[in-house]
Specification:
Blueprint: H1 2-45, H2 54-62, H3 68-73, H4 79-89, H5 96-137, H6 140-149, H7 152-215
């Protein structure tokens, strides 16, 4: 008797979860579609505009008489990269160690920004199959009961719901996986570029400070 009551309670809980699980799957699909669209927008607004050759930019930064901030503004770097590098050139009161600490903080902030974008799609990659599996298993209980009663209509409806939720979860996860894979590759390149140019900027600023000190 107790076992039957427990089974009935679990069945009631599982049945009550069917609608929330379906709602979550719809939200995951919408979020995956949004991330896919944002990836396309990022491709045309930022990625395709990245036209900087690092050796030439490094040479320009090391050229005598060239203002570092002017060189950065005229480069083909991304907007966020320019903003971080220009921030390093400001605050003339900072000494070498403090400026290097500022550069490390800015680079870390940029890395956190990019990792946050990737985490959103990685979360969908993990949640999509989980909720898809939940949506698959929940309607199978009533379907099996209907099969025992010979109710093929209810059985077919349960199987259709199971298949639909499975597809929804996999589609959301697949789209998010594509976004995560592409962005991880892009952002790794962005961070390598930022770290390299930041080193060049710090080196040039240090040389400028030494020249100024010797002249004084």
């Amino acid at each position: 008797m107790l076992s039957e009551n427990l089974s009935g309670a679990l069945r009631a809980v599982a049945g009550a979860l069917q609608t929330p699980v379906a709602a979550v799957l719809l939200l995951l699909m919408a979020a995956a579609a949004f991330l896919l669209g944002s990836l396309v927008v990022e491709l045309f607004t930022e990625r395709l505009r990245l036209r900087e050759r690092l050796p030439e930019l490094a040479d320009s930064l090391r050229s005598e008489g060239r203002d570092v901030e002017t060189v950065i503004r005229g480069s083909g770097l991304l907007r966020r990269q320019k903003a971080a590098l220009i921030e390093i050139t400001r605050h003339p009161a900072l000494n070498g160690v403090m400026r290097e600490a500022l550069a490390v903080k800015l680079v870390h902030s940029e890395r956190e920004h990019y990792e946050g974008l990737v985490r959103a799609s990685d979360l969908i990659v993990r949640l999509g199959p989980m909720f898809g599996l939940l949506g698959t298993l929940i309607p199978l209980g009533p379907g099996i009961i209907a099969l025992g009663r010979g109710d093929t209509h209810t059985l077919s409806q349960s199987l259709l719901t199971a298949f639909d939720t499975t597809i929804a979860g996999l589609v959301a996860a697949a789209a998010a996986f594509v976004v995560s894979t592409v962005r991880k590759k892009w952002y790794a390149g962005y961070m390598a570029t930022l770290e390299m140019i930041a080193e060049c900027v710090l080196e040039q600023l240090a040389e400028t400070a030494e020249d100024t000190s010797d002249a004084g």
